[in-house]
Design brief:
This protein is an alpha+beta fold. The protein has one domain. It is built from 7 helices and 6 strands, in the order αβαααβββββααα. The strands form 2 sheets. A 4-stranded mixed beta sheet has the order 2-5-1-6. It has a two-stranded antiparallel ribbon with strand order 3-4. β3 and β4 form a beta hairpin. The N and C termini lie far apart (48 Å).
């Protein structure tokens, strides 16, 4: 009797431990997959990050005007690029030109805030746009900071020109031409039914890694 009574709790404990290890293993595998998916996508795009001077209505409106001016100036510069690296190389000599394009918009509105333009690694949250979405992760980005840079952000993509595509078909074409696989195109355009869950997993894993 004594032997039997001590064996049952031990067996239950072993089953509980096995369940914990299985859950940890699945979490690790999911995290590794998520990280790989995010990294593969981040290697195929050059993001755009515009930061407003403040959250005032006027500054937020100017942010969008600066965004349009910078995109208009950057688009022809990256028109011949076949990769994010080529797009970055094409933009680097013209950062001052891009800043001036934004500053001209501000000047026309009677604003004298300075504009700083750079290309750097930056953390992006999961973002959903009209025709596509991108998971959270660290991306190379063209960063435009207006004035104090204390306002809300505007996030999008310089290469491929996804922010200029007006319909999903154009978005898919631009993404494919940038070298994204069919699976990646389906993922960012929502053609993959599980993309919302996948992006949540990617963001969760990235946040977990950043917490250590």
């Amino acid at each position: 009797m004594f032997s039997a009574s001590t064996t049952k709790p031990s067996a239950k404990l072993r089953r509980w431990e096995a369940a914990v290890f299985l859950a940890l293993g699945l979490t690790l595998l999911t995290g590794v997959w998520s990280s790989a998916s995010s990294s593969a996508l981040s290697d195929r795009v050059l993001r755009l990050h515009v930061v407003a001077n403040s959250d005032s209505q006027a500054d937020q409106a100017l942010k969008l005007q600066v965004r349009d001016a910078v995109l208009a100036a950057a688009t022809p510069l990256v028109a011949q690029a076949d990769s994010p690296a080529q797009a970055e190389a094409a933009l680097l000599p013209h950062l001052e030109q891009l800043a001036q394009a934004g500053a001209q918009v501000l000047a026309q509105a009677g604003c004298s805030d300075p504009i700083a333009v750079s290309i750097e690694n930056q953390w992006f949250p999961t973002k959903t746009y009209t025709d596509f979405a991108l998971p959270a992760g660290v991306y190379r980005a063209l960063r435009v900071v207006i004035g104090e840079g204390q306002g809300q952000n505007w996030w999008c993509v310089v290469f491929p020109p996804l922010c200029l595509a007006s319909v999903t078909e154009e978005t898919s074409t631009a993404a494919a031409q940038a070298g994204m696989s069919e699976q990646q195109v389906a993922l960012i355009t929502g053609q993959d039914d599980g993309y919302v869950l996948r992006f949540k997993l990617i963001e969760w894993w990235e946040e977990l890694l950043n917490s250590f």
